[in-house]
Design a protein that fits this description.
Protein name: TlpA family protein disulfide reductase
Strand order of the largest sheet: 12-11-10-13-14
CATH superfamily of the largest domain: Glutaredoxin
Distance between the termini: 40 Å
Keywords: Signal
CATH topology of the largest domain: Glutaredoxin
Shape: globular
Organism: Deminuibacter soli
Helix content: 25-40%
Number of domains: 2
Structural class: alpha/beta
Oligomer: single chain
CATH class of the largest domain: Alpha Beta
GO molecular function: antioxidant activity; oxidoreductase activity
Order of helices and strands: EEEEEHEEHEEEHHEHEHEEH
Number of strands: 14
Largest sheet: 5 strands, mixed
InterPro entries: AhpC/TSA (IPR000866), Thioredoxin-like_sf (IPR036249), Thioredoxin_domain (IPR013766), Thioredoxin_ResA/DsbE_sf (IPR050553)
CATH architecture of the largest domain: 3-Layer(aba) Sandwich
Radius of gyration: 20 Å
Length: about 260
């Protein structure tokens, strides 16, 4: 379900789209609720968009609910109305400049209750599905970027393309180590990765590690600096997460 908050703005330059943080719980992914500010009327009101709402692309083609909803919650699109087409909404893709500007204006994502900025993470050792061992102790002196997820978590799946872009940008930097820890077993995970390629090395059966650290919401992200202390941590999806992951890595590496 999408809830649009409509208001007439005197300064049209600063129309913001506010995305609710998306969380997944281990048992099932929660429904997402997104709030947006749309110039439309002088009276502020809530407009609920659901399966019956008419949402079109810029060419006027109508989306089905799943298509527009999944695009909108990525934070890469905005919803607009047109006075000559009342009751209909148009989904417009943001330019890279708009995405960058929005990311810069967003507040830092909320920190998790299970990690502490400036404090170390308890040592652990785990193997990825290809048999490679990752030891936090052995990775001291490197920047470690952790992702915790499970395959049925919708926000976890939605952020994979952005995370792959992040990995690609540091493919030639051996001082940055990426690792994803999944709750699922290796066999289910391998089937998932065939359809959803993920550039992070992925460890299966990671529930023991999430229980050890206290993680209960997904996806959870952690960036650990070269000194072994946490630089950034957050849970949930949203466009601001990618920006702050990258910003934290740049802070840790200087590039």
């Amino acid at each position: 379900m999408i809830i649009l908050v409509s208001a007439k703005l005197t300064d049209m330059k600063n129309i913001a789209i506010l995305l609710a943080v998306l969380y997944c719980l281990p048992a099932s992914a929660q429904d997402s609720i997104t709030r947006a500010v749309v110039p439309q009327t002088s009276v502020k009101k809530h407009v609920t968009l659901d399966e019956n709402s008419i949402v079109r692309d810029s060419a006027g083609n109508r989306y089905d609910y799943d298509a527009w909803h999944n695009l909108y919650i990525t934070g890469k699109y905005r919803m607009i109305t047109k006075r000559d087409v009342p009751g209909e909404y148009f989904l417009v893709k943001l330019s890279q400049e708009e995405l960058d500007r929005r990311a810069e204006s967003m507040p830092k994502p909320r920190e998790t209750p299970w990690f502490t900025t400036g404090a170390p993470v308890d040592a652990f050792k785990i193997k990825d599905i290809n048999g490679h061992t990752f030891s936090l102790k052995d990775m001291q002196g490197k920047v470690v970027v952790l992702n915790f997820f499970f395959v049925d978590c919708a926000p976890c799946r939605q952020e994979i393309p952005d995370l792959n872009t992040l990995v690609s940008s540091y493919s030639n930097n051996s001082d940055v180590v990426f690792l994803a820890v999944a709750l699922d077993d290796k066999y289910r995970l391998k089937d998932f990765l065939k359809e959803n390629p993920f550039s992070y090395p992925v460890a299966a059966d990671g529930r023991w590690l999430t229980e050890k650290t206290g993680i209960t919401s997904f996806p959870t992200h952690v960036v650990i600096g070269k000194d072994g202390n946490v630089l950034f941590h957050t849970a949930g999806g949203g466009p601001g997460v990618f920006h702050w992951l990258k910003k934290s890595i740049i802070q840790a590496t200087g590039s």
